[in-house]
Fold this protein.
Amino acid sequence: MLNSKEFQKNQSLFDNEGYVIFEDVLSQEEVESYRKALNPYIKQDIKGRNNFEGHKTNRIYAMLAKSEVFGDLVSHPLVMQFVKHNLGDSALLSACLAINLLPGESVQPWHTDDGHIGIEMPHPSFGVSAFWVIDNMTQANGATEIIPKSHLWPRKKLQKYLKSDSIKEIINENFNPSSGQEEKKVIELNAGSLMLTKSTLIHRGGANNSDKPRLIITPQYCFGWCRQLENMIAVIPKEKVMKYSEEVRSLIGYSIHPPFMGYTDGVHPEKLLK
């Protein structure tokens, strides 16, 4: 975690630029432990279904159902410091997936991480996204590209990149992959580094023009009153949930948004685990 002065400095950067970067947060041992847990699913080589998921990309969903090692990652103290400040103590884990960009993958459409909500932009950010770098991320292997400050743009300027407020339409559109060259920033980072973004920041995965894959893990968080992108309670077996810390269980959804949003049969959902 950051001390108060460092946190305020980085939160100010987060508010103004829409993103913040911390280098070499994870040790090499931690990086390799996450890679090892993902390898069986990467080897299944299930590719994406559209331009958004990537026809030459492996996406691994429901990660907390697959290995308990990811519990420490989604509740990392540095990430939670920003999540709780920006989204409150009742924040939820909206999604957690690994993205393995294979050689030859093309650039992704520009998008935001709360486009699925379908509310006309611009609007306040409904979430915080974390990008954990597992393979060194370079321009050659498809590093994430962002448009700094785009979370603050008026609608007319947003429409240069986002042709629709609907992520469904963005997924299916015939987009111009060369758009945004003059304003984009390519985020090149070493393995173990972390980028946090506002959910309203415009970004995309780059094209992998190298001969090796590029792997990241991206937990996404939302307000406690928002519906999660992935139905965590449905996908994670109860016996596995009980092995996680109280903080992780709360992020999954065994929690309430005050005063009582999310109750189950009139009681706190944590009681379901007793």
Strands lie at 19-22, 57-60, 92-101, 127-133, 145-146, 185-186, 194-198, 203-204, 214-222.
